[in-house]
Amino acid sequence: MTVMKTSMRNFFAHKGRMALSAVAVLLSVAFVCGTLVFTDTMNTTFDKLFAATSSDVTVSAEGASDTGETTSGNGKPPAMPAAVLDEVRGARGVKSAEGSVFSSAVTVVDADKDNLSPSSGAPTIVGSWNANEARTMKVTSGAAPEGAGQIMVDADTADKHDLKIGDEIGVITAVGTHTAKISGIATFTVTNPGAAIFYLDTPTAQRALVGEPDVYTNVNVTAAAGVSDDQLKKNVTAAIGADYKVQTAKETADANREEVGDFLNVMKYAMLGFAGIAFLVGIFLIINTFSMLVAQRTREIGLMRAIGSSRRQVNRSVLAEALLLGFVGSVLGIGAGVGLAIGLMKLMGMTGMNLSTDDLTVAWTTPVIGLVLGVVVTVLAAYLPARRAGKISPMAALRDAGAPADAKASAVRAVLGLLLTGAGGFGLYLAAAADKASEGSLWLGLGVVLTLIGFVVVGPLLAGGVVRVLGAVLLRAFGPVGRMAERNALRNPRRTGATGAALMIGLALVACLSVVGSSMVASATEQLDKTVGTDFIIQSDQGKPINSQAVQAVKDAPGVERVTEYKILDADLTTPDGKTSKTQSISAADPSYATDLRTETVAGKLADAYRPDSMSVPEGFARDHGIKVGSKVDVAFKDGTTGALTVRAITSDDVVIDKGSMYASIATAATYVPADKMPLDLLVFASAKEGQQDAAYTSLKAALHDYPQYVVRDQTDYKEALKDQIGQLLNLIYGLLALAIVVAVLGVVNTLALSVVERTREIGLMRAIGLSRRQLRRMIRMESVVIALFGALLGLGLGIGWGATAQQLLALEGLKVLEIPWPTITGVFVASAFVGLFAALIPAFRAGRMNVLNAIATE
Questions:
Q1: Which residues of 366-390 are buried (b: 16+ CB within 10 A; e: fewer)?
Q2: Where is the MacB-like periplasmic core domain (predicted)?
Q3: Where is the domain boundary, 210, 243, 276?
């Protein structure tokens, strides 16, 4: 009880100094709990949706996926004859059955040809209005569609795009473009996760989506009373045979849940990873806080030891304070995490994914994880200062002599840090020298971890040299004030090293990712310049295939000399070694593709691969299967027949664009795949007539005005789009890393605040001999800046090394250009100085307000 009372008294005596450490714990726990609550809520939302939309049993056409997505390569959903519906209705245990048609391979536009698809990436679905849809949708305005001229839209999409009853809508499919006017607006009775839903009547949906009457993509079956879903599935399968996919409601919901879960897990673990980085940074803040508090209470600890307190009791006293700090920070963090989750839900709502707070899910494990994590991390971080406090002998403490083993411990720390850093550097060297990316990535990971730990451990040793250099460059110009700031930063290298290390971690990751991202863009740009011989690339940014009407519009555009179509077909390949490679992708294109994309070959000519019954294979595939130019490969096309194709070329693996592709002509593919099963073009290349590039660019954009889902890009546009994609990803990562940097800034603030308290008497004496308040504040700001720049130098240097090594591994995949983004690196370094200035504002202000006489009288 005495230990706990002492801990409580010390905690509340230093509550102001504990606050920033508590904020660090709060932020880290909030990010963890917010991530868990947000993903759990997303799961709850989708579970409710899947449960509400799944029939007792669903029958789908052959080729449909387990999730109900029914789009095939030719842009039409796989369909089954209407006679299947009668067979299902005749099965035992069927209460009712209803046929439906839907497709997500659609683009819906308004009268101005503006795309109505969600910006969040959620699907656009056009289907038939039926009783199954009425389970989750309620017509709240107008009426359900009747006849070819009517269409109904969901309320969220109508609100977002200001659609009203009577407005004209265009549905673009592989069959053509169907226009209709809005007859009604339907509202979700469950949470809409962001999809845009449009409804036609069944006959119109059959013609507009499939191009055939009397077909369905799905049959929704309801079980009679007392009949289980599993039994109903068996009965339906017996009635219609094994040519169709039959799933129970649970199987359909599980398949949908698995698909959504894959996406959510990636997001969940990525965010938890950044929370872990914030926790790591927070550890340095907590270590510094307790180290300085222990140092300030050295005489008090000595008195406790002198009157009988044991090392263990002193140790427990410090750890009890950490326990209280971790508990308070974690409890507040759990509450903040729920608020963060609600904020993320609101943010997702702005992008079109509507998540209701009614579905807010806080599992019992979430607060437990947050509490345990926050408390354990805090106590572990405080262990070293607590152990150090327990080692101080009573007499040494009363003399303020400190711990006797400090010098020896510093030497051991320096040696250990150098060894770890050297081992990490050797790991990075092995990664850069690796022949295979898979092997090199293991060495890269090991090198990153060891160099990071090594720099953290050796930080105090580096602080002495780096701070002196920074002082000579930046601080000496400020005269005595600058020299005092430098000496203050050098006074306790361990403290400066730990404070700088907290900032170093976040900036090292920023620098590493910047180098990797810039190198990827530079490498891809070089490859585009070297290999792409066409003027324009037409494709969908959503990955949708290009329908035949749009391809024809491209061919008819004025100023266009050559158009190359490009398709992807799946096939099973049986090679000369007798092995069968399942589901390989064949890139079928027009012969002009060999000119539009100048792919290097190691044997044969790529143009010969477009001869009848010919193909190319990549270098690695040829080596693995003993294939040479002239070898025969049996190609069993999906939805088609098998042909024996002759290998006319072997392409190099030392490329970026289309690496690993197998090429054949569209004419060859058409020999074995029926026209109605032939996939649509994935992209189209177009080349302008000599001297008409600008006119062709304008005419292509005009030709595709009615097809807003497709984008026309010249090579400059394509490079910018690639740069923007990588830039957006990096900005997202930088935003998440900002959490760790915020915690690091709190560490600088806390270190300075405690340092000011520690030097109260010294500050009073300096004021007494003539140091002005302005000079005092400047000194503290300079000290903060030099500590921040020390952390930035270490972090940026470490990150550049990591990024350069990672680029060497990417070079094995064809990304051979190393580009260090010096403007970004310089900007981060300069920004670090402003971070130091910002962190010093409050400590400098408090120092300037000290009463001189009271400060001198402080013991």
A1: bbebbbebbbebbbebbbebbbbbb
A2: 19-238, 499-696
A3: 243
